[in-house]
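Incident log, support desk, overnight shift.

02:14 A customer reports that sequence design results differ from what the structure should imply. Their input is reproduced verbatim below. On-call engineer (initials T.W.) acknowledged and began investigating.
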């Protein structure tokens, strides 16, 4: 089916006046409220006398509240990557309060994610945040989610063990830079040395994370840190990684099996907005927080801060006709997007033909 109504970013950008400014107060309040809520809920889940925890609904309420609140706090690393210069103080606070304690300092996201947003590299074999899942087996989807749960242990191993060894063994250090310093879904992705600005963040985030987790693991081994709460902390970290893994799978169609360079319109149509209303909107906010439910729109205008994306989507939706290709990249919820991806792993029929012109992004958008 050919859809004739096209989308032109140069035209749409005119609708977004005033939306590109980062409102740092929103970042601070949103992050601190969710981080505090998550920490408090987790503390209460361990501190309150709840008997056999896994049998107590109060425990599960607190534990899941902590998981989703901290998940939202974690996702701010995406915003930091896109707006580091505007969020320098916020970035430091985020890393101290969230990134370092959860073994996911923000420098792990810089190189791979900015590559993912390069128009010439998106969806190619150089894009570490892309795999052609739509043409792979269902087992690859399952494997990715299972590995996501255990990613926390690999990250802790990277910082607490390999980082100190790398100080004395150059080959280990070279391996860390190439294979252990990017949060990616493609195991074949090879990273390069950090840029000058990235190196400044590596210089303090990496040793701080290593020292923190060396202290934690030593404290657990010597009995200074209670073992059971740490097990539940690891479980919560695993849940956060799994939810984010599901969110990652729902963010794109992953329908580029040949690794070819994709046009801007193909990149947009390969991405997904979650636009359900009512309870579906609440579900989308929980599972794809901090604006990531508008992921296709984000790929059109990467320079839009997360707090502007709902308004941007509203303005565009009012402007373009309902038959516009702007709505082709849409799903009601994360689960509907996952369902279609799951079906596509065995249904390899040719995708419907679409025609869209999104134009070239302006410098502020790229």
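02:41 Re-run completed on a clean worker. Output:
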């Amino acid at each position: 089916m050919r859809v004739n109504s096209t989308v032109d970013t140069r035209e749409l950008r005119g609708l977004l006046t005033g939306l590109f400014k980062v409102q740092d107060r929103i970042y601070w309040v949103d992050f601190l409220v969710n981080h505090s809520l998550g920490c408090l809920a987790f503390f209460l889940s361990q501190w309150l006398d709840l008997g056999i925890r896994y049998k107590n609904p109060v425990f599960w309420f607190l534990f899941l509240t902590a998981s989703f609140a901290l998940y939202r706090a974690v996702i701010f690393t995406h915003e930091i990557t896109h707006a580091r210069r505007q969020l320098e103080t916020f970035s430091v606070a985020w890393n101290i309060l969230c990134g370092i304690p959860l073994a996911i300092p923000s420098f792990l996201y810089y190189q791979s994610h900015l590559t993912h947003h390069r128009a010439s590299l998106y969806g190619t074999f150089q894009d570490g945040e892309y795999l052609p899942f739509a043409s792979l087996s269902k087992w690859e989807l399952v494997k990715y989610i299972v590995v996501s749960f255990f990613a926390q242990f690999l990250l802790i191993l990277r910082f607490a063990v390999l980082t100190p060894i790398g100080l004395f063994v150059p080959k280990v250090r070279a391996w860390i830079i190439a294979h252990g310093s990017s949060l990616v879904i493609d195991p074949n992705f090879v990273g390069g040395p950090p840029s000058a600005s990235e190196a400044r963040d590596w210089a303090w985030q990496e040793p701080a994370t290593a020292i923190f987790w060396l202290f934690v693991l030593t404290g657990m081994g010597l009995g200074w840190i209670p073992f059971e709460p740490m097990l539940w902390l690891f479980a919560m970290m695993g849940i956060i990684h799994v939810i984010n893994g599901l969110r990652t799978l729902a963010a794109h169609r992953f329908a580029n099996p040949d690794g070819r360079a994709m046009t801007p319109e193909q990149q947009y149509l390969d991405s997904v907005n979650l636009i359900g209303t009512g309870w579906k909107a609440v579900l989308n906010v929980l599972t794809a927080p901090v604006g990531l439910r508008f992921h296709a729109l984000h790929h059109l205008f990467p320079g839009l801060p997360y707090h502007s994306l709902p308004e941007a989507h509203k303005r565009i939706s009012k402007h373009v006709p309902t038959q516009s290709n702007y709505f082709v990249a849409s799903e009601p919820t994360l689960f509907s997007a996952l369902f279609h991806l799951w079906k596509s792993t065995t249904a390899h029929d040719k995708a419907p033909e679409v025609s869209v012109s999104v134009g070239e992004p302006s410098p502020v958008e790229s």
